[in-house]
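User: For a reading group we're discussing how well predicted structures match intuition. Take Mannitol-1-phosphate 5-dehydrogenase. Before you show the prediction, I'll give you the sequence so everyone sees exactly what went in.
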Amino acid sequence: MRAVHFGAGNIGRGFIGALLDQAGYETVFVDVNDQLIEALNDKKAYNVILAGANETLNVQNVSGLNSKQDEEKVIEAIKEADLITTAVGPHILPMIAPLLAKALKERTDRSSSPVNVIACENMIGGSSLLENHVYEGLTNDEKSQFKRLIGFPNAAVDRIVPDQNHEDPLTVEVEPFYEWVVETTNIIGDQPEVNGITYVDDLTPFIERKLFTVNTGHAAAAYLGRKHGHQTIQEAMEDKVVLEKIQGTLEETGAILIEKYEFKPEDHQAYQAKILERFSNPSLTDEVTRVGRGPKRKLGPQDRLIRPAVEYFDWVGSEPVYLAEVIAAALEFNDPNDEESQEVQISNEKYGPLETLKKIADLSDSHPILNLVEKHLN
Ligand SMILES: NC(=O)c1ccc[n+]([C@@H]2O[C@H](COP(=O)([O-])OP(=O)(O)OC[C@H]3O[C@@H](n4cnc5c(N)ncnc54)[C@H](O)[C@@H]3O)[C@@H](O)[C@H]2O)c1
Ligand SMILES: O=P(O)(O)OC[C@@H](O)[C@@H](O)[C@H](O)[C@H](O)CO
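Assistant: Thanks. Here is the predicted 3D structure of Mannitol-1-phosphate 5-dehydrogenase, as structure tokens, for the group to look at:
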């Protein structure tokens, strides 16, 4: 079986690539990083170290292509693929869509064999977003052909993979835990057979539980950790003041999730506890700058901070004070190497942080979250 995976980065190599190899796929990684592509073609294998578990997986049957320089080869690989996956980041999905569309058009012109495209990104509806971008340049006939042959099932992926620093650029150290949930609704043809994928009929509770617990908690640790002078998530978790605020934030998102999806409170508490333990994993060093990257995206209306903060008023009927503090810290997150954080800082200076927040988070002038956030702004 053959897979094409866009994004040979941390989650691409450390999670999706590893599971695809175990399931018997030959994987072509498509990326723009020449160092990674050359190393993949040179070695045809790489190591995934399970941090703290004393276990290393050797992932084989892999190769690399550059999405800009090897366009024809990417198209050929997509024509032959049994599965297509991505882990490039939500902002890159629109950029890979034109090449994907071109390749899928050539594929559907010649073959009636169906294929599924699974976006493994931290967002709600990642595959649907990619599908919309892929459909942008299609004629109505092409759209109906795609509807018949190309599935875009949405997914939730969970595994903490920090930024890497090894002599071999392909080696990747990951936490042992993982979860990959795929929605059956939009699958065309057979479900991809990958050990480790859990298929569900409705992804909504799974993606919301993951994004608004793992990623909201992580964002709290990163932004409040940075504010309190910490370099890593592990250091932030050791600071009692920060930890208490992370726990408070998770209680707020938990209250919404329990109410909305009727999760048993004790099950959700166990889920939260497991996540806090994962954040503290002493075998990992996860920089607050990685976890806090892209604050503009993370302050978006559907993302991990604003969506639960806004929903808290309706579902719980009181004020999300911890979420408000994290939102304020996200607005103040200043990493010179992070383009989005710099954009936010420039906007803060020009228009003020509340105006910046209103614009990024698409909030009305009178939204009650604004007053709560203001209390925590320096
Ligand atoms: N790292 C984690 O802990 C983790 C866990 C779950 C989900 N995710 C999600 O997975 C996605 C990737 O995150 P990551 O941590 O692996 O990031 P990363 O930066 O390590 O990897 C992204 C890869 O995409 C490549 N890329 C960029 N532009 C491209 C293009 N036009 N075509 C092909 N490849 C391109 C980059 O060169 C890089 O190798 C994100 O959506 C992230 O939210 C990450
Ligand atoms: O990848 P982002 O930027 O959306 O979020 C940063 C981290 O919270 C994230 O990568 C987690 O490590 C991951 O989602 C764990 O499953």
